[in-house]
């Protein structure tokens, strides 16, 4: 269950009355909300990703920088985020473009209050899942970075299920040396077998064991 008190919803909409209604709705069910009247105002206040960001509720059509332009800017700068787009002038092409760029949902005005609340809840859950996956990936990479180049070579072959004899033949080293490297790999990474090592390597890089 997501703790609402730790996940702020950032609302960006140039329509003041509508923006206020969104803030009221979200706060009425317990979400902390931070609202802005433009993409530029949001970026001026948050040049870097806020640690508490749950998701962004973003108007797709705004003066100067549109919602789509803000989405593209944030992705280019590596922001982890989920966006719920809202618009009173939406069309299929815009929805497809926003969804292809990774937004969580697309709602066209007028929409039911519950539709927005459901979209926000889902977006926040996706955001937390993405952060958890990113944390696990960083932890796995940090463990594997402890390995020497030779240990890394041995680790990959062991993770692919190759026995010491085959690893030794492929790398042109003795079985005894492979055994020593394998022990070092297990000690440095904290795993206990080939399956655990494979999971660790795939967590750090999904393509680590390809080809």
**Quick check: average pLDDT?**
88
Q: Report the strand count.
A: 5
Percent strand? 5-15%
Shape label:
elongated
Structural class: alpha/beta
The parts where pLDDT drops under 50 for at least 5 residues are none
H and E order: EHEHEHEHEHHHHH
Q: Largest sheet, order of strands side by side?
A: 2-1-3-4-5
Describe the structure.
It is a single chain. The protein has 211 residues and is of the alpha/beta class. The chain is 55% helix and 12% strand. The protein has a 5-stranded parallel beta sheet, with helices on both faces. α5 (113-144) crosses α9 (194-204), α6 (149-159) packs across α8 and α6 (149-159) crosses α9. The model has no long low-confidence stretch (mean pLDDT 88).
Brief digest:
With 211 residues, the chain is α/β, with parallel strands linked by helices. Helices cover 55% and strands 12% of the residues. It has helices spanning 16-28, 39-45, 67-76, 92-100, 113-144, 149-159, 164-171, 175-189, 194-204; strands spanning 8-12, 33-36, 53-59, 83-87, 105-108.
Key structural traits:
211 residues, alpha/beta, elongated, 9 helices, single chain, five-stranded parallel beta sheet
């Amino acid at each position: 269950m997501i703790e609402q008190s730790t996940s702020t919803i950032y609302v960006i909409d140039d329509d003041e009355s509508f923006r206020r209604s969104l803030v009221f709705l979200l706060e009425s069910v317990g979400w902390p909300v931070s609202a802005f009247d433009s993409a530029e105002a949001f970026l001026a206040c948050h040049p870097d990703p806020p640690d508490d960001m749950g998701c962004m509720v973003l108007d797709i059509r705004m003066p100067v920088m549109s919602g789509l332009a803000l989405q593209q800017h944030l992705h280019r700068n590596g922001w982890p985020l989920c966006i719920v787009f809202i618009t009173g002038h939406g069309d299929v092409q815009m929805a497809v473009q926003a969804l292809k760029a990774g937004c969580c949902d697309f709602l066209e005005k007028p929409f039911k209050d519950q539709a927005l609340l459901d979209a926000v809840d889902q977006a926040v859950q996706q955001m937390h899942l993405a952060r958890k996956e990113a944390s696990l990936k960083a932890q796995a990479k940090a463990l594997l970075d402890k390995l020497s180049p030779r240990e890394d070579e041995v680790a990959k072959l062991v993770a692919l299920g190759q026995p010491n004899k085959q690893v030794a033949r492929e790398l042109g080293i003795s079985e005894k040396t492979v055994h020593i490297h394998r022990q070092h790999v297990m000690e440095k990474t904290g795993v206990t077998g080939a399956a655990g090592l494979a999971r660790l390597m795939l967590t750090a890089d999904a393509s680590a064991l390809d080809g």
